[in-house]
């Protein structure tokens, strides 16, 4: 069977996989939610926007004759990942998740684990502090409940409307970031605490290393729970999985 992949993307890993499958001449479509205004050029055809829940994705799999799905979304894109499990099971389409192992604390880290965004907001109760809030623009509203803090916000796109937080400074940059730059940034803004999702991978790790170096506490938001699924951590493993799931890669 000649494979026709659907890659659920929005991560550097998805882009790396798209490059790997394009290099092998494998048919693939890369799907974005459409949250970022200027997605980077990609080596395979791209579609943008939600599918309409698990049912919409299931219909897409059938109408587009998708043979395999790779969920390479961000570890916090839980709804999309749940929908992928449901839709692939419903249509009998093999699914693999290309995902990064979570970060684990190293000597010198001062992490306080919180289960979700609400937990991070609750943990910020108390006197005003200078907070680096690296959670993405979708979740900024939740932090209105702790308006006493100064928030340093790093966003991929310029915000369409001013962030709802009374004291903030916005930096627009999509990374990847270096530890030295993040260290300088934290010192420049006299940051006292960092709020981060446990994204894993290298692209967003610099701020965690910088916080360690500066002895700063980190509110580490743990990953959402996901249904059981087959997981791998490199594009090469995805290609192996494809080869072992009946796909004719023509190589
Ligand atoms: P989410 O909460 O799991 O998804 C919400 C809805 O957005 C999904 O039900 C789906 O809509 C649509 N969607 C999400 N990812 C999609 C994709 N790759 N292709 C098509 N539709 C998609 O996701 P999220 O946390 O908002 O993340 C959205 C995108 O940003 C993902 O592609 C993710 O990889 C990327 N991203 C997320 C984070 C993060 O911290 N969450 C960080 C970096 C990048 P329908 O139900 O209508 O299909």
pLDDT < 50 runs, ≥5 residues: none
Please outline the major beta sheet: 6 strands, parallel
User: How large, in whole angstroms, is the Cα Rg?
Assistant: 20 Å
Distance between the termini: 13 Å
Global outline: elongated
Give the mean pLDDT. Answer: 94
Strand order in the largest sheet: 3-2-1-4-5-12
Q: What helical percentage do the residues reach?
A: 25-40%
Strand content: 15-25%
SS elements, strand count: 12
Question: What is the ordering of alpha helices and beta strands?
Answer: EHEEHEHEEHEEEHEHEEH
Can you describe this structure?
By secondary structure, the protein is an alpha/beta fold. The protein has 7 helices and 12 strands. Strands 3-2-1-4-5-12 form a 6-stranded parallel sheet, with helices on both faces. α1 (12-23) links the parallel β1 and β2. The two termini are 13 Å apart. Bound molecules: NADP nicotinamide-adenine-dinucleotide phosphate.
Topology:
Blueprint: E1 4-8, H1 12-23, E2 27-32, E3 46-48, H2 53-63, E4 68-71, H3 78-91, E5 95-98, E6 110-114, H4 117-123, E7 130-134, E8 150-155, E9 168-172, H5 179-188, E10 193-197, H6 206-214, E11 217-221, E12 231-232, H7 235-243
Helix pairs in contact: 1-7, 2-3, 5-6
Bound molecules: NADP nicotinamide-adenine-dinucleotide phosphate.
NADP nicotinamide-adenine-dinucleotide phosphate (NAP) binds at residues 8-11, 31-33, 35, 50-53, 56-57, 73-74, 76-80, 83, 136, 138, 197.
